[in-house]
Amino acid sequence: MSQSCQDKHMIAVDAFLHQHGWADAAREKLVDDASARQYWRLSRGYRTALLMDYPTYAVSIDPHGVSETPERPASIAPVIETTAMFGKLGWRVPHILAYDVAQGLALIEDFGDLTFTKALSMGEIAPVSLYIRATDALIDLHRHVDAAGVGEGAIQTADMAGLVRYQAQNLRWQLASFCRDYLPMVMTDPARQERAKQEFERLLDDVLPQCWQAGETIIHRDYHVDNLMLVDTDDGGVDCGIIDFQDAAIAPRPYDLVSLLRDVRHDVGADLERAMLDRYLAAFPDMDEAAFYRAYIATGMVRNFRILGRFGWLARESAKTRYLEFIPRCWELILRGAGDNLPALAGWVETHIPAKARFEPVVPSTPSKNGPDHEQ
What we know:
The chain is an alpha+beta fold.
């Protein structure tokens, strides 16, 4: 990106803010997320708003595994579309005050800074109350989607933002990094690696279809306590505000519950997890509980195997070994309930990755020529 390109874009930013009455606002740059998006908090007296800046010359990565070329031009269009969709489906998402898709700019409602993560760290709110709010938000969403209906090939409700509909191949693609970037850290013998990979592919043939045992729904795709916020309501109450949902898709029904309750960065604990699963299932009394739990565990396998691959790549290619501390929890989450519900998964792990190897990965000293997992 040239300096002249940056300069032209800053002129466009100033013009956008002037057009919408925020030219004289103080600007505070916020911490960037994992994408090329940047955010500023705008303040003018007692009023605040957020400026999202996602210029079209930036590069976006396909998060779904639908393209052989994962890089694509950045666009705020998915933000606009999914905001409208989730608003119609009853979620409390930030209102969009103004936007310019051509320039990659949007003014959005400021939810403040009180994420569920921060609330948990403060210790003043019982964790169970926060997880109830988060679980109930998913229950409300799924009820709306169930009422709208999921037809063959597309959601039947209007304005569903052209969502990608996951198939087993999407999940298989997302797991490529596990074999490429993680297995070499726990087994050095090429023949053992090859056997493990071949049996892993057969395991996926068995396990991936289980992800859909409880059907499908619209998912946030990154639903965890960092993206949930406590937001004041007009009547003095508190609502569950939801952000960072632009990668929404149609996917296995347990996907977001897994993201929330089996988050490697936040130890929810088996008892609280079980309580929230019971709460969810009680809201859908016609659901086959055994089928749902198999789907939940299978989807959790996909999420945490993908994370292991990502951690392996970061350790080897970027020398970011701090993520290795989460690996034991990844394995605990993968195996929790697997023996009773998905014995093929538990069997593959016990056969190919003994307990000691799960806790003592060895980072290769020479970076590979492979690129990173495209999944962010």
